[in-house]
Write a structure and sequence with these properties.
The protein has 75 residues and is mainly alpha-helical. It has one domain (2-72). It is built from 4 helices and 2 strands, in the order αααββα. The chain has helices spanning 2-9, 13-32, 37-43, 59-72, and strands at residues 47-48, 51-52. It has a two-stranded antiparallel sheet with strand order 1-2. α2 (13-32) packs parallel to α4. It starts with a helix and ends with a helix. The relative contact order is 0.17.
């Protein structure tokens, strides 16, 4: 368990953002069965056949998407 925590803590800020975006998105989709049009719109410029291309998203845009998703998740 501590190894997993250490692995996360060793990530760069950008890698932590990417991890958070992915985790929040998976939680949202699991809780609601899909994503809302506004979340899709926010992420659509970065979608590829493989998923979200987080290398092309500026950190501020990742943070904005995370806030949007978190605002819609149940507490």
């Amino acid at each position: 368990m501590l190894s997993l925590i250490d692995d996360y803590l060793s990530l760069s800020y950008r890698e932590k953002l990417s991890f958070s975006l992915s985790s929040r998105l998976q939680s949202f989709m699991g809780q609601y069965g899909g994503i809302t049009p506004d979340i899709l719109s926010a992420l659509s410029p970065y979608l590829t056949d493989e998923g979200i291309d987080t290398e092309r998203i500026q950190e501020e845009e990742i943070e904005k998407a995370i806030r949007l998703i978190r605002s819609k998740l149940m507490p």
